[in-house]
Amino acid sequence: MTQIDLRGIHFAYPGAEPVLRDASLVLAPGERLSLIGPNGAGKSTLLKIVVGLLRPDAGEVRILGALRKAEADFEDVRRRVGLVFQDADDQLFCPTVAEDIAFGPLNLGRGRDEALAIVDDVLARLDLMHLRNRITHHLSGGEKRLITLATVLAMDPEVLLLDEPTNALDQENWARLVAILNALPQSVLLVSHDPAFREAVAPRAVMLSGGSLKAA
């Protein structure tokens, strides 16, 4: 069963030329794939279509073996496919790191004690326990990037969508993120302008250009 199967996707923002024209993409279980292309090519748009934050004008979105059309279809997708946004501030909105990471499990109906146990487990696995009680908006840009990943991993997703995850990372945290991702079992669809990071995490690539995808 493919985890992501996009077929003939067309999408245009209101009043603008189409960003995606007959774009098709497949991600298999355990696969790691980089999505490359110039700024404005539609890479972030494609990731948002996968989790239902945007709806295509035409084409089929099949995620985790099922056709997804209505909002209700994507509720399950968002539990099982984790999107790390390009801007960490779009994803972190609670007062403390622990509360940000606990938000997802609590939203899934986990009890508070269980959610906090998940927080501790994720932070321990990522070697970020020292940030547990920090005020989120006091974190450095690189620390925020790592905590956004922790908030997604707390949901135990089957697939990770990563949108420019190295933004604001210094070399030490860059290396830490590579080590973290390479130790994870999840499939990965990566958008990154950093060729060294792509090579380290998801060396196979497809190019998004002119609205469609082709092997890079």
Q: Would you write up a description of this structure?
A:
- With 216 residues, the protein is α/β, with parallel strands linked by helices.
- It has a single domain (4-215), classed as P-loop containing nucleotide triphosphate hydrolases (Rossmann fold, 3-Layer(aba) Sandwich).
- Helix content is 35%, strand content 25%.
- It contains 7 helices and 10 strands.
- The protein has helices at residues 43-50, 71-80, 97-107, 112-125, 141-153, 171-182, 195-201; strands spanning 4-11, 20-27, 32-36, 58-63, 66-67, 81-84, 159-163, 187-191, 204-209, 212-215.
- The protein has a 6-stranded mixed β-sheet with strand order 6-7-8-3-9-10, sandwiched between helices.
- A hairpin with a 2-residue loop joins strand 4 (58-63) and strand 5.
- Helix 3 (97-107) packs across helix 4.
- The longest helix has 14 residues, at 112-125.
Topology of this protein?
Elements: E1 4-11, E2 20-27, E3 32-36, H1 43-50, E4 58-63, E5 66-67, H2 71-80, E6 81-84, H3 97-107, H4 112-125, H5 141-153, E7 159-163, H6 171-182, E8 187-191, H7 195-201, E9 204-209, E10 212-215
Parallel strand pairs: 3-8, 3-9, 6-7, 7-8
Antiparallel strand pairs: 1-2, 1-4, 4-5, 9-10
Helix pairs in contact: 3-4, 3-5
The DSSP helix count reads 7
Instruction: Label the overall shape.
Output: globular
* Radius of gyration from the alpha-carbon trace, in angstroms: 17 Å
Mean pLDDT: 93
Structural class: alpha/beta
- The tally of beta strands, per DSSP, is 10
Characterize the main sheet: 6 strands, mixed
As residue ranges, the low-confidence spans are none
Task: For the record, give the distance between the C-alpha atoms at the N and C termini, rounded to a whole number.
Answer: 24 Å
> Class, according to the CATH hierarchy?
Alpha Beta
Considering the protein shown, what is the CATH homologous superfamily? Answer: P-loop containing nucleotide triphosphate hydrolases
Helix content estimate: 25-40%
Order of helices and strands: EEEHEEHEHHHEHEHEE
Q: Strand percentage, roughly? A: 15-25%
Count of spatially separate domains: 1
